[in-house]
Write a structure and sequence with these properties.
By secondary structure, the protein is of the alpha/beta class. It folds into two domains: about 180 residues, Rossmann fold, CATH 3.40.50; about 140 residues, Rossmann fold (3-Layer(aba) Sandwich). The protein has twelve helices and 13 strands. The strands form three sheets. Strands 3-2-1-4-5-12-13 form a seven-stranded mixed beta sheet, sandwiched between helices. Strands 7-8-6-11 form a four-stranded parallel beta sheet, with helices on both faces. Helix 8 links the parallel strand 7 and strand 8. The longest helix has 22 residues. It starts with a strand and ends with a helix. The mean pLDDT is about 95. Bound molecules: 6-O-phosphono-beta-D-fructofuranose.
């Protein structure tokens, strides 16, 4: 395929590793004399045409940077398809884009899939999200960085929880899937891990906390890790506001406060909460996420150079593969029940 210019965009919540993808795709394409334009702020850039030239020179130092140098947004072109899809096609024309690389989570990749299927826009997807909830890939970049932030926080919180003999409820991100909670909780040695995939039984949680304390005098504190998307039997989701984003996602946050109140009431243990929130999305990517981002970026660029569209790059085992976009967006990848069982067994008090 005789390519001249390729567009790249990053959509949805940012995460560490996005710049690694951008940098490596630019390298591979520029080396083949293909220009790369970064569309600014995700799909919004495809509607406004706002873009920046990306070159090996201006992307050579971005590998360790968190966030995304081309910006992101939760703009959904299908919110008003009649108006937006012609605009998007016009941008392809006016910027003379021969193909697009869309880097994003389920929402961004869902749009990419529809644009490929319904409009035949030549597009390749790259999965990203700290939530690690995209199907067909073992891991998304951003997840490892987020887990390490959460684990470090738990390590720190343990010392203060222990000094005061308190329960510390640590709330991590994860709308529909408890991957961060499970990994960070395991790595940080929590007493209880609560994920959206499992209904919460508050009495069982309190019994576990008491048993942990009873088994050893040294263990006179508790760490509970809870994913933001957990629903308590007693209540609904903890919403930050009634507003929804353009994809219909609610803004979550604060379930740890309700949980802490219940724990304190039922156990009599003094309880505090910490909501890690966007701390988990910020900062420099881990080595794992940098390497995964570089590998994803290279493979996405290769697909584009080969003229193979409608695919998403993915990590399966230790191999980078490509899968049809529709496979990646078909359903959310929730926590592997075997992994969760391992966590439950590991932390079960004897
Ligand atoms: O990108 C995924 C995510 O970090 C979720 O874990 C979280 O619920 C959401 O984004 C927060 O979105 P925003 O940055 O728009 O508040």
């Amino acid at each position: 395929m005789n390519l001249k210019c390729v567009g790249i965009l990053t959509g949805g919540g940012d995460c560490p590793g996005l710049n690694a993808v951008i940098g490596s795709a630019v390298r591979k394409l520029n080396k083949q004399n293909v220009r790369v334009l970064g569309l600014l702020d995700g799909w919004k850039g495809m509607l406004t045409g706002d873009s920046m030239e990306l070159t090996m020179e201006n992307t050579s130092e971005i590998l360790p940077l968190g966030g995304t140098i081309i910006g992101t947004s939760r703009t959904n072109p299908y919110k008003d398809a009649k108006k937006n899809i012609p605009k998007l096609k016009e941008t392809m024309k006016s910027l003379q884009l021969d193909a697009l690389i869309a880097v994003g989570g389920d929402d961004t990749l869902g749009v990419a899939n529809r644009l490929w299927k319904e409009e035949k826009i030549p597009i390749v997807g790259v999965p990203k999200t700290i939530d690690n909830d995209i199907s067909a890939t073992d891991f998304t970049f951003g997840f490892d960085s987020a887990v390490n932030v959460a684990m470090e926080a738990i390590d720190r919180l343990k010392t203060t929880a222990e000094s005061h003999h308190r329960v510390l409820v640590v709330e991590v991100m994860g709308r529909h899937a408890g991957w961060i909670a499970t990994y960070a909780g395991l790595a940080g040695g929590a007493d209880v891990i609560l994920v959206p995939e499992k209904p919460v039984d508050i009495d069982e949680v309190c019994t576990l906390l008491k048993r942990h304390r009873a088994r050893s005098k040294a263990h006179n504190y508790n760490i509970v890790v809870v994913a933001e998307g957990v629903q308590l039997k007693e209540g609904d989701f903890a919403k930050l506001s009634e507003k929804k984003d353009e994809f219909g996602n609610i803004y979550l946050g604060g379930i740890s406060n309700q949980l802490a109140q219940l724990i304190e009431q039922k156990t009599g243990f003094e309880t505090r909460t910490v909501i890690l929130g966007h701390l988990q999305r910020g900062g420099t990517p881990t080595a794992f996420d940098r390497v995964l981002g570089i590998r994803f970026g290279m493979r996405a660029a290769r697909l584009v150079l080969e003229g193979r569209f409608g695919y998403m790059v993915a990590l399966q085992g230790n191999k980078i593969v490509e899968v049809p976009l529709e496979e990646g967006v078909a359903k959310l990848k929730t926590v592997d029940p075997n992994l969760y069982e391992t966590a439950v067994e590991y932390f079960r008090p004897f």
